[in-house]
């Protein structure tokens, strides 16, 4: 091989090597090539998985919130009905015991207000005039409910008898009952006649 032929061979090898490197670089850089396409597919699948996980998380959270609100509606309404009857119905012979039992279903400040009113005003009058009040819930509904707070509206019927008026007197009333959930129990935080 002549020296000129050797130089041509070396030049051809260098050119072939350079073309191979450029070919490898362009194969990596081009989106249509195998390696780039795999990376793009992997990135797209990862993004889709993240979006799907987020959607599932939001869906589960919404369901838990809806179920909690629905349970709150049912439980709070039942507690409001029972507690309104316990608070407003009394018999002159057992009024003190009834006040103590009813106050167990009330929150702190409202419990104090209710107990003071019943012991200092209602109970003495009930004992003096032999007053008995029966209460029944005619209709009820939930105004608003969250997991730990609720507002209800009750339509009540009250039948009152006394030594002064032994014939039963019936009257209707509406009350707004606000409740709070404490330690798993719905307690009345406010009862307001409407």
Structure description:
This is Possible membrane protein. Its main location: membrane. It is found in: Membrane. This protein has 194 residues and is an alpha+beta fold. The protein has one domain: Roll (Nuclear Transport Factor 2, Chain: A), CATH 3.10.450.230. Helix content is 58%, strand content 27%. The protein has a 5-stranded antiparallel β-sheet. A hairpin with a 7-residue loop joins strand 3 and strand 4. Helix 3 packs antiparallel against helix 4. The protein is rod-shaped. It starts with a helix and ends with a strand.
Key phrases:
transmembrane, transmembrane helix, Possible membrane protein, 194 residues, 27% strand, 5 strands, Nuclear Transport Factor 2, Chain: A, alpha+beta, rod-shaped, 4 helices
């Amino acid at each position: 091989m002549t020296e000129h032929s050797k130089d041509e061979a070396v030049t051809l090898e260098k050119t072939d090597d350079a073309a191979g490197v450029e070919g490898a670089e362009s194969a990596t850089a081009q989106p249509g090539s195998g390696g780039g396409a795999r990376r793009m597919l992997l990135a797209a699948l990862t993004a889709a998985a993240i979006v799907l996980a987020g959607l599932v998380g939001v869906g589960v959270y919404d369901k838990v919130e809806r179920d909690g609100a629905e349970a709150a509606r049912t439980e709070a309404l039942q507690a409001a009905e029972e507690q309104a009857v316990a608070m407003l119905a009394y018999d002159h012979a057992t009024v003190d015991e009834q006040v103590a039992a009813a106050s167990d279903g009330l929150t702190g400040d409202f419990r104090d207000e209710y107990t003071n009113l019943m012991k200092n005003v209602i109970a003495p009058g009930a004992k003096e005039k032999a007053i008995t009040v029966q209460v029944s819930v005619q209709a009820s509904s939930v105004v608003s409910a969250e997991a730990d707070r609720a507002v209800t509206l009750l339509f009540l019927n009250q039948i009152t008898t006394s030594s002064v008026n032994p014939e039963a007197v019936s009257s209707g009333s509406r009350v707004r009952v606000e409740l709070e959930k404490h330690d798993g129990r719905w307690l009345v935080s406010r009862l307001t006649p409407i």
